[in-house]
Write a structure and sequence with these properties.
alpha+beta; Thrombin, subunit H; 2 domains; 6-stranded antiparallel barrel; 6-stranded antiparallel beta barrel; 35% helix; rod-shaped
């Protein structure tokens, strides 16, 4: 049994407890005048909302991070696909350009063949000889196609060289830039001045040199040089090249003339072999006694 003193000491605590229970019951039952929701629920939501925002933000950031990773992976895969497609298109474009260039070359060669007054055998370059500074090439036509030694080889742009060796199915062509091509030197004619000279290979820089042109003749850079047909190899009127350098001579010293061949000798792919026979030189059957050679 509790004494009166103990009861008096505990009475305030019981009163506070009862007041708190009453307040809780009143708060639980109280409702907001606008939303008609219980006030305790509103308070609880207010207390919990900061934690909800934090957890929601963390969850959203995690989901966003994962989504970005997925998007990056998809973008990388798409970029790789696009890169592969671009490379394929570049290869297709290169092949198309190659085909266009080849068609243009073949068309020009066909036009040249139709307009040429001589028989023409078209051929493709199948080999180059690097030991001779690329001044000798091999073509895929030979004696079986009617090709013989010393026949001129040309392109629609100009002269290339002459045949120096044949087999039944191939032939070797010495380019005009070869130093040894001087043995079959081209007699050229400057288009502007009609001056004559001998063209020989230099073996360097892809140029040829025109010699024995009088220093009194007017020669300028940009002048063109044509064959005269006097060398017994090339018919007249074929393009040799363009003058790119002139060292002026004098009345007693000839010009030094450098010429860039008109044919693209460093990029030969198709050529034409002219079945050209130079005019026969008939020996005279009569001569003055005092000029007869001994």
């Amino acid at each position: 049994m509790r004494t009166q003193r103990e009861i008096r000491q505990r009475a305030p605590w019981w009163l506070v407890g009862l007041l708190f229970v009453n307040l809780a019951l009143m708060s639980y039952d109280a409702r907001d005048t606008v939303t008609k929701q219980r006030v305790i629920r509103v308070w609880a939501q207010a207390l919990v909302s900061p934690f909800q925002r934090v957890t929601t933000g963390a969850g959203g950031a995690s989901v966003g991070f994962v989504q970005r990773l997925v998007n990056l992976k998809n973008a990388a895969s798409e970029n790789e696909h696009l890169r592969t497609r671009v490379e394929e298109m570049q290869i297709e474009l290169s092949a198309s350009r190659t085909a266009i260039d080849e068609n243009a070359r073949l068309k020009a060669l066909l036009d040249f063949k139709e307009k040429s007054p001589y028989g023409v055998v078209t051929a493709s370059v199948i080999a180059r000889d690097p030991s001779l500074w690329f001044d000798t090439v091999t073509i895929d036509r030979g004696r079986m196609s009617g090709i013989e030694n010393n026949m001129p080889v040309v392109t629609p742009g100009g002269i290339v060289g002459r045949v120096v060796a044949t087999s039944p199915w191939t032939a070797e062509v010495m380019l005009i830039t070869d130093e040894k091509a001087a043995a079959g030197a081209v007699v050229g004619q400057l288009g502007q001045s009609n001056a004559l000279g001998s063209v020989r290979g230099l073996g360097i820089n892809g140029l040829v040199e025109m010699r024995y042109v009088s220093g009194l003749e007017e020669v300028n850079v940009g002048d063109y040089v044509l064959t005269t047909g006097q060398d017994g190899i090339y018919p007249s009127g074929l393009n040799v090249g363009e003058v790119v350098e002139v060292k002026k001579g004098s009345a007693t010293v000839p010009h030094v003339i450098r010429i860039r061949p008109s044919a693209r000798l460093n990029a030969l792919q198709e050529v034409a072999v002219l079945q050209y026979k130079p005019p026969q030189r008939v020996a005279p059957d009569q001569a003055l006694p005092n000029v007869k050679k001994q």
